[in-house]
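Attaching the record inline, Q. Sequence:
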Amino acid sequence: MQQLILIATCPMGLEAVVAREIRELGYADATVENGRVVFKADPLAIARANLWLRTADRVLVLMGQFTARTFDELFEGTRALDWPEWLPEDAEFPVQGRSHKSQLSSVPACQGIVKKAIVEKMKLRYGTEWFAEQGPRYVIEVALLNDIATLTIDTTGPSLHKRGYRKLVTEAPLKETMAAAMVLLSRWRADRPLYDPFCGSGTIPIEAAMIGWNIAPGLRRSFPSEAWDNVVPPELWEAARDEAYDAVRDDVPLDIVGSDIDAKAIDVALAAAKAAGLSKQFALRVEPVAKARPIGENGCLITNPPYGERLGDSREVEQALRQLGSITGQLPTWSVFILSPSRQLEHYMARRADKKRKLFNGRIECNLYQYWASGHIFKGGGATAK
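Structure, as predicted:
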């Protein structure tokens, strides 16, 4: 089991960011597909990818892929795979499923067929008719797309956005993976100021601090694959965690500030920063965007403003965006990155974005509006830019 095929899943639009992260981990053989990145690696990569990937949702092991237009084809194709190489005799192995544009459209039926085929293969190896399933957990998924069955095992468990530092949430929290993606796409570096005037529960400042200090985002949580001693021995997990701890650069000074008009949100942000061990590494304050005054040169303003789809009051949203446009217009040396579904964002900013990238904040289609320092100003309504 030296060479594996792993799949890092992610929201649409972030595939290239995930691929870059994977290559920076040293896995050059990475292929970008819709909603995922496929790469080849050794078993140690299961631990390293789960610990280090900031923008992926899950890391899956590809077990096999084959045509399955009938239940017989699904059964035989599944049984042909070497499940006992992965699953010990006491393994718990629930089967999840999904189907799209395939003749086998009944997901429960497909799950049952896959489960039965795996059990039959396990019987041959272990010589028993019944499996207690009281050991390590291996969640198996059968995904059918255009009559092609893809079978995977989930190494991650709860999505990678669940870092472990956020116990409380605000009304409309930004996922940690999306916040990290925004910081990575900004190309921000730890020697530059960073400001978020709509920080909410503090996700962008916290993720930025973790990036600035090179803290692996998975260090504070566990993964089901840590119990897979037959695949990823404990010494590999220990080596991966030691590598991550050794890589932390906690002597790097950070200039990160987050503010929000909602005092309760700032309380949540402070609690999350403390849980992440970063409460003294950046400033959080209660402040309306109209009074925001970022300090320093060549900084990055990275933010996810409130919007009507989430919070309901379109007039307040419009006013907040106009005020944001006024503030950013006074920051000619700063780059600005705004995640918003608003089609009027450029109007409020009084300049066209240098680049727009379509992203999904949950199910809401957004654009990441990117403005380089001293961006081009266009004539129109909205805030006045200098």
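Confidence is low (pLDDT under 50) at residues 375-386. The chain has two domains: 4-154, 176-216+224-371.

More tomorrow.
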